[in-house]
Automatic annotation (TrEMBL), chain A:
Entry GO terms, CC: DNA replication factor C complex; nucleus
Alphabetic keyword roster: DNA replication, DNA-directed DNA polymerase, Nucleotidyltransferase, Nucleus, Transferase
Example of a GO MF term: DNA binding
Family that this chain belongs to: Belongs to the activator 1 small subunits family.
Pfam annotation, one family: RFC_C
The protein, known as: DNA-directed DNA polymerase
SMART domains xrefs: AAA
Oligomeric form and interacting partners: Heterotetramer of subunits RFC2, RFC3, RFC4 and RFC5 that can form a complex with RFC1.
Location within or outside the cell: Nucleus
Role: May be involved in DNA replication and thus regulate cell proliferation.
InterPro entries, per database record: AAA+_ATPase, DNA_pol3_clamp-load_cplx_C, DNA_Rep/Repair_Clamp_Loader, P-loop_NTPase
Span of domain AAA+ ATPase: 34-193
Entry's Gene Ontology BP terms: DNA repair; DNA strand elongation involved in DNA replication
TrEMBL record, chain B:
GO CC term, one of those recorded: DNA replication factor C complex
GO terms (BP aspect): DNA repair; DNA replication
Biased composition range(s): Polar residues: 30-40
Biased composition (Basic and acidic residues): 1-22, 53-69, 211-227, 997-1006
One family name in Pfam for this protein: RFC1
Name used for this protein in its record: Replication factor C subunit 1
SMART domains linked to this entry: AAA (SM00382), BRCT (SM00292)
Molecular-function GO terms, alphabetical: ATP binding; ATP hydrolysis activity; DNA binding; DNA clamp loader activity
Annotated region described as Disordered, given as residue ranges: 1-227, 309-363, 925-1018
Family named by the database record: Belongs to the activator 1 large subunit family.
Lineage: Eukaryota, Viridiplantae, Streptophyta, Embryophyta, Tracheophyta
């Protein structure tokens, strides 16, 4: 079993990072006997999911761990036609978890249906236990505007039988209306020190020899994502043990590929190169790397090597194209447009530099 | 960006009015002289080959010396013709010309300078002025020369003095010059495009860089003479090398217009070899061998001029007018004739009155009556019908009556003839003798399949041949298949055509039941067999069956022999593929028709017509008939104009459309939209795929070596800028497309096409280049479709993996986190041991890891697939094949600890393969889960939803399962978590037996409600 899963804290008490939030949550569910809708947001690898699972366990006890995975189909009557929407759900007796964003633009039907369905199957509260079920919605920021609108009504209407826990990376993509109906909890990315602490905890449990300065390096490399830090840690362990202080930390495969693209762009700006880069971008996309991630990563790689004067402009264009990418459908068009733009800017910048000095 | 685009289009459209309106303050008074000297200069080049006829040379020089005034005059005249060429090239301008011409004529009496300027851009307008003006207009006419000179300058290279002058004038002028220079190139590119070919616009290098022909050194500097229409009639020219001032296509046009013929290679018939420099090529060698006369461009011009001079054309007298006296030839009949030819469409003087079209259509309908039985008397009626019979459509009227009338494909007709002739002997007689012989002669087919493009005479040949041999032809075409008409004719054989065909082919005495008792021989002509579709389900199969039993010959006719529908039919038929007749063959026949109809037309024009209709005789005849309605005399130019746009009606493939968008010059906006809309889904994708490959012509500077570094990099930046703008626009198109698709805003479709096709293609309008070595210089197919489907597949794989990982109850990662963060490590965990450890140890370790995360063999493969990057080593590289097989084996064997919790890893009863979609929905109707299976013994058990009890008669894992299931079932949630402690492979091996067992289990349990949990173990 991977360390990420092996050392995932199962209860709110065992958390190493975000202990304060954990305690607040615990109080929230134990003292009030009821909890409001929750919205967890924060960068990936911060521990949102861990917190949510621990919270569910706190509310429902061990039975919340008994989950099953199923692929549910909703038959939705959308006026003129019937739509079949299929989604993978993860459910226990007390909660259902899903990523409605996967349904694409039909997510709205899912959101409407699932809540109604849960309201119908309202659990009979026999032992004085909780009279509600919890719906965990992942990646709420990927929900379309329509889905979020339909969510806000049902959230109130069925609040007696159903609690929502929303989880997303950025609350800015969640509409105001939904946000105001939830208790917003921001989960910060753990600081590097905290990551080091966790890594050392794992190292101790595993009985590893940790050279000084090794875990901080991993923490640094992890981009403050705890998950990634642990994964990197284990990757290093697989790669080479015992550790040496200067051991190379292997990058993620796709990050490496993006870095290659970035250096390709910087070494040559020509139609031919643009064409080659298109091929590489396609490669990344077909390997299921989300285009937004590619763009973001590419930007940071490019920024690393471009001059200060360019940074603002390049960032501006990256934001511009990311926005358009979300409006559009064919991500490659927008990625390519960004690369073309960058090439054009960079080339003229180089030329002006050249003219200035030469 | 928007405004830029507008500029682009504005320029296009403003062009023609701009020509007339732009003020031209500079008057190049010396213009005629200059061009005269240019002509002399060029004449110096004539000495390059001693083979040139010396007398002609002398004559030419003499002319230039002795008749300077005359020369000038002819120059002026020639300018008109330049203008005319120009005019023909853009027919959108043409309309303006004609409209403009009329008012100028009338207002010429007042003769304000402005008017002249406005009109002077137009050859026709000025002409009227020329003939009407007297000497007091000297100044004015001179002025009028100036814009003409400008027009010429536009066509010429940038070295022309005129051009430079006009450059000084103002910016607009400059732009126009660029434009018109482009238009000069279009003479070549345009034609290539209209032929539907990827001829590179602007012609530099032309299609596939053929020949690397240089631009003419004095391009556009000489006036193209205007001669008598048929002055070159009967002469055959071959053009070789680069001419002095004309592009090759221009020269061809010139010759053809004057009735000459242009061929590709030198033969005995060649009268002149047109070349300005002796390039010692094949053509000139051959010409020397054959003693063909060499001719320079100037000499050609002189020839043409000479013809005109003898007619005392008013144009030549114009100069004389200025100095001497008003011409007596003013308003002479010759003049009016030339005017009439120039203004082709204005001239309406058909000698024969034709009856209205309506009656024609009616007769045609009657004539085409379905399944007509043509009588079999072959008669050779010469097609000299009287003119009063002209209500017949020409295609019917001049339908060939004897095989020799057929255009082309004579050998095929002969073959058909022989086949039909021998048919009786070959099949009927042998069948009577016994079947043995027939099988020996496997080469002989009982049916024949004629194929070829429309309008080349397949049906006609079939009919004629059968007529000739005295067969009675029964024609069944696509229109009959569902119609009643055919059934009626067959008297009582009701129902479908298939019945009547069957009847016909099986009963060779059927002919007797018809009116003509003496004609016992019948042939069935199945026309348009590739149109058998829709309602004619099984039509082809039925036809084949008919062929097998047929007692009469069957002739099938189709357009596309390679059609999927005809695949099976082809095996039973003798294949005869009709080819398109050559244009000479067609022209001959067309000439014949024209003569019979009393239409004056020369052969060259008809050849042009023939080549334009792409071998379609029927279309050629129709066009000819149509043109004859308005003109009694049809010239080369009429045909060019008439058919210029006819190619638009063809089915344009997306590739052609994209090619045209990028390379064709001077397309109008609506043409561009039409092109893009020819396939609004595919064209944008093709554009997106290929736009990087185009080098915009607006960059200029084709010759890179000439440029210094700074300029070159400047160009590159501009190129990148354009690329970036194009990419932006394509992305815009994508966004618009989302609006269209998601919100059904189809009113935006033009916007989308504009953004995704037209703007990019305008920005990068130019020549296609290859980016990679060895790449073919054709437009690639859009890569997006393929990539998108790979993406979809990979997402599905990833989702499967994700579900399995989730189902292992060990992890709660999101799908993207799985891809972005976990996958690297997973890959490492799954492959590294295989590389590093000993075989058994490694396999054991990996299988254990897989089991702990419910990673199936398929998932293993998908992990490898998804984390594979082009240019990076394959994740499985370095793993011995033996280790891989050992891994597969070990995994299939399974282990005690394996718990598989997802439904898709279970095979359902009755379904051989595990369904791709995961299961929940499917379990419901089945109403019964899967039984357990322990080494062949059935231990299956079910838990009912209603009761909370469940009897798990099970050995190991029982406790765990029980707790799982209890918790799951209580709430009435449909349970479909499946536990399986058996290898997938074993499950696969025994689907049938398991199915049975499951059925038994179902019987035992019975009455299950919807949700059911099942587990199987072994």
């Amino acid at each position: 079993m991977l360390w990420v899963d092996k050392y995932r804290p199962k209860t709110l008490d065992k958390l190493i990072v975000h202990q304060d939030i954990a305690q607040n949550l615990k109080k929230l569910v134990t003292e009030q006997q009821d909890c409001p809708h929750l919205l967890f947001y924060g960068p990936s690898g911060a521990g949102k999911k861990t917190l949510i699972m621990a919270l569910l366990r706190q509310i429902f006890g061990a039975s919340a761990d008994k989950v099953k995975v199923e692929n549910k189909t909703w038959k939705v009557d959308a006026g003129t036609r019937n739509i079949d929407v299929e989604l993978t759900t993860l459910s226990s007796t007390h909660h259902v978890e899903m990523s409605p964003g996967d349904a694409g633009f039909q997510d709205r039907y899912v959101v409407q249906e699932i809540i109604k369905e849960m309201a119908k199957n309202r659990p009979i509260d026999t032992k004085g236990k909780r009279g509600f079920k919890v719906l965990v919605l992942n990646e709420v920021d990927r929900l379309s505007r329509e889905a979020q609108h339909s969510l806000r009504r049902t959230m109130e209407k069925y609040s007696a039988s159903c609690r929502l826990i929303l989880c997303c990376n950025s609350s800015s993509k969640v509409t105001e209306a939904v946000r105001s109906r939830c208790l917003n909890i921001r989960i910060n990315a753990p600081s590097e020190d905290e990551i080091v602490k966790v890594l050392e905890f794992i190292g101790k449990k595993e009985g590893l020899q940790l050279p000084a300065g090794f875990t901080p390096r991993i923490a640094q490399k992890s981009n403050r994502s705890l998950r990634r830090a642990i994964l990197l840690f284990e990757t290093c362990r697989v790669q080479q043990y015992p550790f040496t202080p200067n051991q190379a930390i292997p990058p993620m495969d796709w990050e490496q590929y993006v870095a290659e693209i970035a250096s390709d762009i910087l070494t040559e700006q020509s139609p031919k190169r643009l064409f080659q880069i298109r091929g590489k971008l396609y490669e990344l996309l077909t390997n299921c790397i989300p285009p937004e991630v590619i763009l973001k990563r590419l930007l940071s790689e490019l920024l690393k090597k471009s001059d200060a004067e360019l940074k603002l402009e390049v960032s501006h264009w990256a934001a511009y194209y990311e926005h358009r990418m979300r409006l559009g459908q064919k991500a490659i068009f927008h990625l390519e447009a960004f690369v073309a733009k960058f090439m054009s800017i960079y080339k003229s910048f180089l030329l002006s530099q050249f003219a200035a000095f030469g | 960006m928007q405004s830029d685009i507008r500029k682009w289009f504005m320029k296009q459209h403003d062009k023609s009015p701009g020509d007339a309106k732009a003020p031209k303050p500079v008057v190049p008074a010396s213009q005629p002289n200059k061009s005269g000297s240019a002509g002399q200069e060029a004449s110096g080049r004539r000495k390059t080959s001693k083979y040139f006829a010396s007398d002609e040379k002398e004559k030419g020089e003499k002319e230039t010396k002795e008749l300077p005034t005359k020369r000038k005059a002819s120059n002026v005249g020639n300018e008109q013709s330049v203008k005319k060429v120009h005019k023909i090239e853009d027919d959108d301008e043409d309309d303006d010309d004609l409209v403009l011409a009329a008012p100028t004529k009338t207002s010429i009496g007042a003769s304000p300078n402005k008017k002249l300027k406005g009109a002077s851009g137009r050859g026709i307008a000025r002409k009227s002025e020329e003939s009407d003006e007297s000497d007091e207009d000297d100044d004015k006419t001179r002025k009028s020369l100036k814009p003409v000179g400008r027009g010429r300058g536009g066509r010429s290279g940038p070295k022309t003095p005129v051009h430079e002058k006009s450059k000084d004038v103002d910016e607009i002028d400059d732009e126009e010059d660029d434009k018109s220079r482009k238009s000069a190139g279009r003479g070549r590119g345009g034609r290539g495009a209209s032929a539907g070919r990827g001829r590179g616009g602007g012609g530099r290098g032309g299609f596939m860089n053929f020949g690397e022909r240089k631009d003419p050194p004095h391009k556009g500097e000489k006036e193209i003479p205007e001669g008598k229409r048929d002055c070159l009639a009967g002469l055959t020219f071959v053009i070789s090398g680069t001419l002095d001032s004309l592009e090759r296509e221009e020269a061809e046009d010139l010759i053809k217009r004057h009735g000459g013929r242009v061929t590709g290679s030198v033969s005995k018939k060649t009268s002149y070899l047109l070349c300005d420099e002796d390039i010692e090529g094949k053509k000139s060698e051959k010409a020397k061998e054959l003693g063909t006369t060499f001719l320079t461009e100037d000499a050609l011009f002189d020839m043409i001029r000479k013809s005109n001079k003898s007619l005392t054309s008013p144009k030549e007298e114009k100069k004389a007018l200025n100095k001497v006296a008003p011409s007596p030839a003013k308003g002479s009949p010759i003049k009016s004739e030339t005017t009439s030819t120039e203004k082709g469409s204005e001239n309406v003087a058909p000698p024969v009155k034709r009856s209205p079209l309506k009656s024609e259509a009616k007769t045609v309908q009657a004539g085409n009556f379905a399944a007509k039985v043509t009588s079999g008397t072959p008669f050779c009626k010469k097609s000299k019908q009287p003119a009063d019979k002209s209500w017949l459509q020409w295609t019917e009227k001049y339908r060939p009556k004897v095989p020799t009338d057929l255009v082309g494909n004579q050998s095929l007709v002969k073959q058909l003839h022989d086949w039909l002739k021998q048919w009786d002997d070959q099949f009927l007689n042998t069948t009577s003798k016994g079947k043995g012989k027939k099988q020996n002669d496997s080469g002989a087919k009982k049916a024949v399949l004629l194929s070829g493009t429309p309008g080349i005479g397949k049906t006609t040949s079939a009919k004629i041949v059968s007529q000739m041999l005295g067969f009675q032809a029964v024609e069944v075409n696509a229109s009959d298949s569902r119609g009643k008409a055919d059934a009626k004719i067959q008297k009582g054989i009701g129902g479908s055509t298939a019945n009547s065909i069957k009847e016909l082919v099986s009963n060779n005495s059927l002919g007797l039941t018809l009116d003509r008792p003496h004609q016992t021989k019948t042939v069935l002509i199945m026309d348009e067999v590739d149109g058998m579709s829709g309602g004619d389900r099984g039509g082809v199969a039925d036809l084949i069956a008919s062929i097998k039993i047929s007692k009469i010959p069957i002739v099938c006719i189709c357009n596309d022999r390679y059609s999927q529908k005809l695949k099976s039919l082809v095996n039973y038929c003798l294949l005869l593929s009709f080819r398109k007749p050559t244009k000479q063959q067609m022209a001959k026949r067309l000439m014949h028709v024209a003569k019979a109809e009393g239409v004056k037309v020369n052969e060259i024009a008809l050849e042009e017509l023939a080549s334009r209709v792409n071998g379609d005789m029927r279309m050629a005849l129709n066009q000819l008939q149509y043109m004859s309605l308005s003109n009694s005399e049809i010239g080369y130019d009429n045909i060019r104009q008439r058919l210029q746009n006819s190619s638009k009606d063809e089915d344009i493939s997306p590739f052609t459309a994209v090619d045209k968008l990028f390379t064709a010059d001077k397309l109008r906006m609506d043409e561009r939209i039409d092109l893009s809309m020819s396939d609004p889904d595919l064209v944008p994708l093709l554009i997106q795929e290929n736009y990087i490959n185009f080098r915009p012509r607006s960059l200029g500077g084709y010759n890179r070596s000439k440029m210094d570094n700074a300029k070159q990099s400047e160009e590159e930046i501009r190129h990148l800028n354009l690329l970036s703008r194009a990419a932006d626009s394509i992305a815009d198109g994508d966004i618009v497309n989302v609006q269209i698709r998601r919100y059904q805003r189809w009113q935006l479709s033009q916007t989308s096409v504009l953004a995704s096709c037209i703007i990019p293609s305008m920005l990068l309008h130019g020549q296609r280049q290859t980016l990679e070595q060895g790449e073919r210089n054709f437009n690639r197919f859009g890569g997006w479709l393929g990539k998108n489907s790979t993406l979809g597949k990979n997402y599905r794989l990833l989702e499967d993996l994700h579900v399995h990982l989730l189902a292992s109850c060990e992890s709660y990662m999101g799908r993207m986190a799985l891809r972005l963060d976990h996958l690297t490590l997973l890959k490492k965990q799954l492959t590294d041991p295989l590389r590093q450890l000993a075989k058994d140890e490694a396999v054991e370790k990996v299988v254990e890891f897989m089991d702990s995360y419910s990673i199936s063999q398929d998932d293993y493969d998908s992990i490898m697939e998804i984390s594979k990057f082009q240019g990076h080593p394959n994740p499985l590289e370095g793993v011995q094949p033996t280790v891989k097989t050992a891994l597969t084996k070990a995994y299939n064997k399974g282990s005690k600890s394996r718990v598989i919790r997802t439904a898709d890893l279970i095979t359902l009863p009755g379904i051989k393969k595990a369904p791709k979609k995961r299961i929940a929905a499917m379990l419901e109707p089945v109403d019964e889960g899967i039984a357990e299976e322990t080494d062949g013994t059935l231990l299956g058990n079910e838990d009912e939803n209603s009761s909370e009890t469940e009897d798990l008669e099970d050995s190991n894992d029982a406790e765990k399962l029980q707790s799982d299931l209890q918790s799951l079932n209580r709430k009435g949630i449909q349970v479909d978590m499946d536990l399986k402690v058996s290898g997938k492979a074993s499950a696969k091996k025994t689907p049938a037996s398991r199915g049975k067992k499951n059925a038994e289990a179902a019987d035992k349990k019975g009455g299950q409600s919807s949700g059911s949990s099942s587990k199987r173990k072994r």
